[in-house]
Amino acid sequence: MLLRYYRRILDDCEPYLVARPPVLEAMGRAPLGIEIPAANCFDPQKVGSGPFLNLVKTLDEQTYGPLGLSMPSWVFYDCAIMPGAVFGFARRASALEPWVHRSLAVPPGYDGLVPMSLFIAIPLPDRTTWLVYSLCSINQVAAGAAPEGLWRLTLALGTDALGMRELVGTSRWRSPRLGLYAGLGPLDLMTAWTPAHDIPATTTFRVVTDASARDRLLRGDAVGPEGIHRYLDADDFGAMRALQDELEQGLRWAVVGPAEIRGAETRVPLQLRDAPADHPVDDGVGFTRRFQG
Amino acid sequence: MTLRTSNDAILTDYQPFVVGLERNLPYLDPAPFGLETRWFIDPTRRASGTFLDLLQRLDALTFGPEGMPMDKWVFYDCAELPGFIYGFATPAADLTADERAVFGVPAGYDGPVPFSMYIAIPMHEDGAWFGHNLASLNRTFPERRLDYLGTITKAIAFKAYKIRRFYGATQWQSKALYIHTKFGPLDLSTTYTPAHSLPETLTYGLQVTDELLRGAAGDPAHKLPRVEPNLHLDATDVEGMKRLQADIEAGARLQLVGPPSLRGKSVLHPLRRLS
User: Of the candidates A52, A131, A161, A289, which lies 20 to 30 Å from B30 by C-alpha distance?
Assistant: First the structure.
């Protein structure tokens, strides 16, 4: 039912997986009922997987390279496809327009699958929580190359395929990716200001990824103003540091929706978890939202 | 039982540290082989920033300008959040002025300064971990007599991470293979790896036991059994790597059974074909 609005993606694209056999055996091969054909499952340790994996790397590089976050070449193997897995959607090279071939540097004569989206995650020691460090779709690189909603559907199916109960992620405060993740539910903040990262204005968060969360994400539910206690200005480093101090003192803040944008101002809605019902809210809570992601 | 190593002075003169999320610490042995961890560094706290910068410096000093120093986000996303960084450090007050300058220790900093680290991250299977960085400064500071620091750090880190099955990847021409092969015969799962940026990469696995770790650390009471090779691979023989890879994909079982050796101008790897 929820997938009916994603029909264009499911009609045009095929799901794929990259994982070692032991990971593949443990993964769901029909996330949300969408069957992943055996021919679309790639073992990263086999030579024959090389051409497709190169295209996966290219999509990741095209997305994150301009942000100054290019994945070092060895990281893709050592820190992604060996410990974890990649899920995404792909299309046949022959079905793509020439300009899309150029965008992704598809080699001449290649007639296999071309990745349109990817979701890379690796487990934490509890093996039920996964860290996501790549989530992208070709629409970020070549707008219009694939149907709208690909990002969202990739995240929903990726979390189901990997059987993750909780997701840990990082995002820049200004990134629309943060709003997409918030579609799963409240993002409990682990950091608001992160000196351990090249870009300290990065937040680290965790979010439950159960069936209800996926439904919320696919529906695009939004939290109303009644769930918001404060906004964070996504360009205010001082406010991020202050929020980080509060987190280190034990307060539990969560991002509860996509950023609201008005003119040049971006503000991220926050909720103090476990706050009493009459907890005071900041002035100006609730004006027109722009839905992102 | 106390651990004996090839250089026990490291265990008395330096103290262990661990970088990891607080939520991950229940999965760590805080006293591997009875060696208490002195410093726990939480990467999500602002106060950890200086130490994490020093780890990045340790990485750069180890691998030099020709190496590939890790960006901070790689440390964060590919080590500190999912896994652990274990190593040996000493308080900044123990460093000479020259050493402080080499490290770039900020004025007024009096916390630990790392001299080695080993990074591993959990894999999907319980007990399985992938190691991706071993750094040590025995060559940078020879006067500190840190011989075997890398191997000792790796062996104790394995125990701290409770690793039962270990995986790693490295290049056939890497000197790191001298250390990796100290841990016994390595099961090869790739000998030629197009998924890696350097296809001349091997991927190996290893069943981990306390006996093996003690032997690798240099405990004279725990010598690792020697396995005889029945073939050799030249470190530059790409066609040979591809042939062996085809054999593996067809079901062959191969092991790397010792460190590389020089024969004339060639570097040869001793392998054993099990099936």
Answer: A131
- pTM of the predicted structure, to 2 decimals: 0.93
Report whether B234 contacts B244 (CB < 8 A): no
Lowest mean pLDDT across A212-216, A261-265, A286-290, B132-136: A286-290
Q: What is the full DSSP assignment across B70-85?
A: PPHHHHIIIIITTSEE
Contact across the interface for A191 and B49, Cβ inside 8 Å: no
**Residues 6+ away with beta carbon under 8 Å from B68:** A72, A74
Find how far residue A276's CA is from the centre of its chain.
Answer: 31
Torsion of CA B159, B165, B171, B176, to 10 degrees: 20
List all residues 6 or more positions away from B26 whose beta carbon is below 8 Å from its beta carbon.
none
CA torsion sign for A239, A131, A32, A37 is positive
Check if B220 contacts A (Cβ < 8 Å): no
Consecutive 10-residue runs of chain B (275 residues): their mean pLDDT?
91 97 98 97 96 94 73 92 98 96 94 97 97 92 94 97 97 91 95 93 96 93 88 97 97 96 92 93
Q: What whole-number distance in Å separates Cα of residue B157 and Cα of residue B87? A: 7
B47 burial (CB, 10 Å; 0-12 / 13-18 / 19+) is: exposed
Within 8 A by CB and 6+ apart from A172, the residues are A67, A178, A199, A201, A202, A203
Hey, are the CB atoms on B81 and A26 less than 8 Å from each other?
Answer: no
Measured between CB atoms, does B167 come within 8 Å of chain A? yes
Q: How far apart are CA A180 and CA B168, in angstroms?
A: 34
d(CA A221, CA A175): 19
Type of residue found at A135: L
For residues A72 and B78, give the distance between their C-alpha atoms in angstroms, rounded to a whole number: 11
ipTM: 0.92
Q: Where are the beta strands (DSSP E) in chain B?
A: 15-19, 39-41, 84-91, 112-114, 116-122, 128-136, 165-171, 186-190, 201-207, 231-234, 254-256, 261-263, 266-273
Contact present, A273 and A246 (Cβ < 8 Å): no
A260 and A269 Cβ atoms separated by less than 8 Å: yes
Could you tell me which residue, B10 or A144, shows the higher pLDDT?
B10
Calpha distance A76→A67 (Å, rounded):
17
- Mutual orientation of helices A150-161 and A211-219 as an angle, nearest 10°? 170
Least confident of A142-151, A212-221, B27-36, B48-57: A142-151
**Partner residue facing A45 (CB), from B52, B121, B190:** B190
**Among positive and negative, which fits the CA dihedral A102, A108, A109, A112?**
negative
Q: Give the C-alpha separation, A223 to A186, whole Å.
A: 9
Tokens for B147, please give them.
């011989």
Give yes or no for A285 touching B (CB within 8 A).
Answer: no
